[in-house]
Every structure is written in structure tokens, then in C-alpha cells.
């Protein structure tokens, strides 16, 4: 036989197959021609030798009349053979000396004197030494004194100075590129709404490389981009590296080239790659298709039954085909729409399942056992920690659990979400992953999720693994990512220390930050941070089925003494001053704080006069040892709907949205367009879980404005986050503060119309209820609070303020909130005496009006807060969603850490206390402000809040 020399030898086979569509057509062909074609096909096959005997057998039997061999028999036999190939790297993968992603010309790099968290040994291995990056992979880790580096020309040397290096961060759940920032018409390709079951869709087909967040999320080396959760089966995910690809194409971002691009790299006959498939249960698919849970469960079962039938017919077909029993077999049974789901049943696709509640988790686990497939991970999965046994009953292996740290209660399904879920799941031996769901959370800060999980009790080795090795393993990619194997990050501190920031990120051996800005961190930040014990709280969470009582307990005695206090920060004339500090290592110098009736009665060193309280009145005195802790002002939150909502997306649990006189007509009964000024105080809800969580983590006051999508919001109010109802003493801090409007591009009415309306109400003859409050603004009594983002709108507001002040002959108070682009006008804002509530502190360019962010180190020298402060702007900080309020202490600590020492602790505390109050028109007497006691550190550390001293309410609360 003569082997064909044509390198396209496979083509005639495909060409032939398009001409013949059935057995009948084939029967009409002369037998000899059919045989010839068949022999050719066989010869062409690379597997000819392997199948030689089989074909010999076929040739012999072909003179029996009833045997028909499909024209594409060889192709089918190849397919049959591939059915049993298991995914994983090719056998010689670990012998590679160069990555398939290597960019020619990339010089080798050695990072010396690094503290390397390798990810190995269950996340406990740490090596002090050097790392050699060459050929797009990590060639060596260790000490290289005895190792010839001479062979490496152009070696780039980086001195890590003992700092931490980790593998590149791995995000198991992102929509980066599918739902790009800023959001514009037609850019959101996250969800298809064409049907509840669409395993054939591919996120790769919707990967937009012009997403602004690629450049900021770069610290995360790799992301799994998943279709959205609108469908029960939403389609196939893709794994990308965030480095800009040299060919600028979406395909170039893939962790591994698709087979279609370069088959030679990774021969599917040797090893398959795992694919990823999105599934979703519960509210999202149910709601979109008007389904009940029963309907969605059936949609899954119907789809899996279809896939099962195809798989079974393939297996039966192949069992006969490899025996040469072609008679009556026909074509290989397959269907492009269903092949990915069939591959799920073959264990070759990692199922990533958005699934929150016990009911849905249970449904999915039954489904896995009915159809015999495994789930790689449950995502969001807010109730998994309540039902570890359900997860353990899943087919083949328990799914991993991919979580947010503290983002919960945004919908009913997340109502029982707990910060202790990572800890509890790990204690049950389940794999924990922290994920961003970018842009739900900014994947740039995925490590922060791990830091919080660690703070709330996930062991440090598992916390770091939760954003590196564990997600890499869960997606079946740990042969190349998750360990120190391809991508590494050099951090400015221990990665679990708050605010850990990359000094450089190498992806495929290429440094990703062109000019990294670094800040000096205290040396204590090089060690794994100390964290409190939350065993009691975690146990209570389980005892109460995820809804532990959060109301604080009042101290039983009138006198409460805090001992072992290292520092005290108090309010003084609209600022914060450190009024006491002790050397934490010297217990004799530690402070004593005596509180009576909720008011400070004595403060000083333990050896001073305050000690008499401790000795004299032991029986009616509660003594709390703060173990070197601190007393600081209770923090104030603003910016979210905290106080007006329980579950954000549940209309019956929220105050709702105000009518807007600029874009809709206000009914007479509500006062008409000048008569309706809504007061947030009228809609306050007390005892919401987010308010109580905020209280437990040091945020004792909430300021909230009426919620709206329009121009005029109304009057804000300030309330105690621990209040039980509005009429309780001290629950309402101040009924009315500032008047809120907002200036945003929404299409209609225009931004210029909104500014004109503001000019009109400030300078025109505004009457009615609105006129009453506008007068107070004109008199400088009530601040005008403007929600605004873009620098251009801010510039117009600065001009308008000047115009109004010129006409009125007096100054008015103006505060901007949100103000993502305010840093561009820091000087002008300072000169115009316009205050700014930066909200959130770590910006994200999700909308066009916010695209010019000041990202903070390592991408910029400092952050917006520091820039504004440097220009004498009064700066407060805020949050966007109610669950974020509890993390205010971490936000201000982080903002201070980024400022290169410009923002001291007292300044940081002021950002979320006195400054916010001043900017929002809330007047708190210095002596009336709440104080927060922390154990084992100050409020800006990973300490634990153990009590609140409330002069206003005349009590001490103990947690
Ligand atoms: C991994 O670490 C966790 C937490 O430190 C521990 O509970 C677990 O037993 C370890 N697993 C193995 C296999 O060593
Ligand atoms: C490594 O860095 C640490 C911290 O800067 C330093 O104390 C030590 O001397 C360095 N070691 C070497 C071998 O350079
Ligand atoms: C495919 O990969 C091989 C091995 O890396 C390489 O030599 C070849 O040039 C690649 N071909 C294409 C078309 O990229
Ligand atoms: C800010 O205020 C200080 C003190 O009043 C002054 O010295 C400084 O020049 C001001 N800075 C700016 C940028 O205006």
C-alpha cells in the first residue's frame, strides 16, 4: 500500500461524508468504490496499525451481503477511542522547559531572598530563597548560590528583601470580559435569555478584551469566566490569564489554546482538558423563566436524560464498532448541542453550580446521584455550611464551596449567609474557595475575601489556598496554576495582612505592572496577622440555623471597667485625638477605663487613681480585659440603604424608592412637585441584620438618605445601629440632616437639565416644603449633599456653588458623595470648600461617569482620599451596599495603609466618624458620641469588637 503524501489527507474523508447522508445512498455505490474509500480512510488514520487486525477482519467479511460499513468508520472509531480519554495534562507535561504561552523575547528573571508560600503541603510549605522564571514557567525554587546562573543571558534580578511571594491569584468565578466595564449598550454578554438549558453556549464567544478591569484585576493571575446565572444550564466557562495577549485576541487570553487553534500543543488523543460548565439553581433561573423549583429541577432532569441517552447510545455504538459489528449501526450518535453535557456525564467537565439554599443544594445532590455526575463546586452557596452532610452525599465527591466572605443578604437566598461559613465548612473537611463573581466584587481584591475568611476563623493555610491552589484544583488546572509554577506575585506584606498589595505580578514570566508604586508597611505586616477567636459565634450561628440573635446584651452593672487598654481615641472639636497610649509590651503602663451609666468616668494608667474603682466596687462592677486593646469612637456609615432595608432585592422588606419631581409628576396628595420632600427618618427600620452586624463590628451610627433613582432624594437621618425602634431613647440620633440630590447621566433628563434644576431651586423662588429646606441650604445651615461621580459634573457643581454664593452673598455647605472622579479636581474642591464622601474607598469603573478612577497602589502613588486630604478637602468615606457597612473599619485602615503615612490612625477614624457627620449635617456633641472597645488590637487591626459605650443611650453593650 502507498501512503498518501498529501498532508491534508484527512480532508477527503470529511468531503465524502458531506455527500452521503444515509445507508441507502451508500448502498447504491459500487461496492469496490466503497471499499476503496474505506481502505483509504483506514490508511490515512494515524491509528492504522492499532486497528489493522480489525480492518483485516472487516475486509474478509465484506463479501457477506448484509454488512454495511459507514464511510466515516475510521473517524467514528477515533471518536470511540477518545470517549474514554480522561482529562488531565499530557504525561510529559511536567518535563516541559517552556510554556506554550511563552512570549519570545521575555528575559529570564530571578527573584532573590523571597519568602515563598508555595501552596504545597496543604498550604503550609514556606521556602526562604530564590525563584527563577524562565521560558514562561518557574524553573527553580530554592537557593541558587551553587547553581550556574551564567547560562541565562539578560537575567533580570529582583531583590524581594525577604518579602512574601505567592502563586498568582486564581478566581473561580468571574464575569470579566463577558460583562465589561464600563457598562455600555450591548456590552453585557453575561446571560442568554433564550432558554433555561443551553449547555452549548460558550463564554469564549463573548470575551471582550476591552474591559477596563483587566488592567486593574491583574493581581489575579487567572480567572474562570462563567456564563451568568439566568439559566439552569447557562453554558461553558473559560479560563483566561489576565495578561494582555500579544495578539490582542480573546483566544490569546486562554490559559490553554483551544484545540481549534493549535492541535499540536495538546493532543486530545493523549489527554483532554477539563472544560467548565455553569449551572444555576433557585431564584435566578426560576424567576427569569417563570418557573417553580419543580420546573427548574425538571429542566435539569430532562436535559440530563437527553445527555444520558446520547451517552448510552454512543457507548453501545462503540462497543459494537470496535468489534467490527457495523451491521445496522449507522452513523455515530452525537449532537453538537448536547456534546458538552454528555461530557459532563463522562466526568470531563467541571460543573460550577450557582446554588444558594438548602432546598436547591439537596435537589442538585439528588440529580448528581440520579445521573451519576459530579459537581466541582457550589458557588455563592450561602447555606452550604448548614448542610455539610448534603454535600457529602453528592455523587463521586463532595463539591467544593465558592463563597463571598461577608457579602450577603442582598437577596432572600443569601439571608442566612454567614461570615463563619468558610471556617465551618473547612472544619467539616470541605474545600473552601473564595471568589469574586467579578464585577459583583472587584476581582482585583479577591485576596481581601481570603483575608476576611481568615479573620473569621478559616485557618491561614486554607485561606491562602482558597484563592490559589484550591480553585486551581477545583477547575482541574492545578498542573499549571495555583502553585508556584507559572505565575507569581511579590507582595508588600504577608498576603493575609489587610491591604496586602502586589509589588509586582509576573504572568508567564512577564512583569505586569509597568511602574509599580509601593508603600512602606509596618514590619509587623510581614507576619501572618493575629486574629480573634470566633468559636462561640460560629457555634451560635449553627444553633440558630444561620440566623443567630445579633442584639447586643447590656452590661449587667452600672459601672464597667476596661483593663489592659493600649490606646484611647476620643472625639474632640470635630476631630479625633489619641488621648492615651501605652506600651503594649508593658502591662504596668496599660490603661484603665471606667464607665458609669454609659459615660466615661475615669481614664488613666492601671497604676493611677482610676484603680480605686476596680478595688472598691467589685460586686457591682463588670471588668473586661481588653488584652492590649483599644477604645475608639463608634464609626458612622453612609452611602447605602442601611436602615431602610432588610433584604435589598425583596420589595416587602425595604422602604422602597421615592418619586422624582424632575422626571415624573408628583400626585397632589403627596404635595405636588414642590411639596414633597421625603424624610428618610419616616422610613427607618430598626433591628435589620446588616445594622446589627455593623454595630458588632464598630459602626454604631448610620446616616441614610431616601432611596431613589432620580434627581431629588430628600432629607437624610442619623440613627443608632443598635436601636430597637425609633421611639426608644437614643435610637434616633438626629431626625433630619442634609438635603440630598443626585446628578447622574441617565439619558433623560440630561445632566445639564439636572444642574439647571438645582440652580433653579437654589436661586429661584422655590416655595412649599422644598422651599423651606432650600432656604436652610441657602442660609448655610443645611448641607446640600450631591451624589455625583464624573469630574465634569463636579466641575459644574463647583461653579454653581460659586454662582449661588455670589448671588446670595454668603457661603453654603456642599458635600459630594460617591465622587469617584473627584481626585481630578482636588485643588478646586479644596478652594471651593466642597466636602467629599468618597464612596466606596476602593473605586471601580463600572460606569462611564466613574471610569477615571484613582486606583491606589501599586497602580498609582496614592488613593483619592489622600489626594483630597492633601488639598484640605474635608473627606469622609462611605459604602455602597448595606452589607459593606460592617467592614468600614477595614476600609479606613486600608485607605490609611495606602497613604504612605499621610493618614494617621486618628485621621483614619475621623474619615468614618466626625468628618462624615459634619459633611452630612449631623451634629454630635463630643461627649455624646459612642465609643467602641476592641480586644487584642485597635479598631483598625484584625481585633475583635467586644463592647460599645453609649453615652447617648446611657449604657454599655457587651458582645
Ligand atoms: C490541612 O489543613 C487544615 C487546616 O490547617 C487541617 O484541618 C487539615 O487536616 C489539613 N489536611 C491535611 C490533609 O493535612
Ligand atoms: C533578606 O531580606 C531580609 C529582610 O530585608 C534581610 O534581613 C536579609 O539580610 C536578606 N538576606 C539576604 C541573603 O539578602
Ligand atoms: C503550534 O505549537 C507548536 C509547538 O509550540 C509550534 O511550534 C507551532 O508553531 C504552533 N503553530 C501555530 C500555528 O501556532
Ligand atoms: C492646607 O491647609 C494648610 C493649613 O491651613 C496650609 O498650610 C496648606 O497650604 C493648605 N494646602 C493646600 C493645598 O491648600
UniProtKB/TrEMBL annotation:
One of its GO terms (molecular function) is allantoinase activity. Gene3D superfamilies: Metal-dependent hydrolases. Keywords: Membrane, Transmembrane, Transmembrane helix. The chain crosses the membrane at residues 35-52. GO terms for cellular component: cytoplasm. GO terms for biological process: purine nucleobase catabolic process. This is Amidohydrolase-related domain-containing protein. It comes from Trametes cubensis.
